From TrEMBL:
InterPro entries, per the entry: Zincin_1, Zincin_1_sf
Entry-linked Gene3D superfamilies: 3.30.2010.20
Species: Novosphingobium colocasiae
Signal peptide limits: none
SUPFAM superfamilies documented for this protein: Metalloproteases ('zincins'), catalytic domain
Name of one Pfam family that matches: Zincin_1
Protein name: Neutral zinc metallopeptidase
Length: 133
């Protein structure tokens, strides 16, 4: 018998989960997250999917937009603040497929995107996750 999920969490629910994930990031890292904007979109657009080297919008659950801390300088003034976008539909699909709680899934994606804020590549983050697990 299949699992019933009820009504899918909306944008406001995702924002609450994302901000809760930010609150769980420990010092000294948390001190460098001020000003990061979180946005929730249903899907990444085609241009975004192609820009990150994917073929399918369902594969992209989150994205960091902005200069990483290691690339910031006083000459960067006037740029938009860093932003993490969470893609609601791909996250909902992964939630249903994996059985991981939505809070854990959103936290994982937020932490991954925060890693990009600190200048870590996907390969470096996967290596850290492998060592931690």
């Amino acid at each position: 018998m299949g699992q019933s999920f009820g009504i899918a969490p909306g944008t406001a629910d995702f924002e609450i989960l994302a901000h809760a994930a930010f609150r769980r990031i420990p010092a000294p890292f948390a001190h460098h997250l001020e000003g990061i904007v979180v946005s929730i979109e249903e899907f990444p657009d085609e241009e975004t999917v192609e820009a990150v080297g994917l073929d399918d919008p369902w594969q992209l659950t989150g994205l960091y937009h902005g200069r990483s801390m290691d690339e910031q300088s006083v000459w960067s003034a006037g740029e938009l603040p860093p932003r993490i976008t969470l893609y609601r539909q791909p996250l909902l699909a992964e939630w249903c497929e994996t059985g991981v709680t939505l809070a854990e899934l959103v936290t994982h994606v937020v932490v991954h995107e925060v890693g990009h804020h600190f200048g870590l590549s996907d390969a470096q983050m996967h290596a850290l996750e492998a060592r931690a697990g």
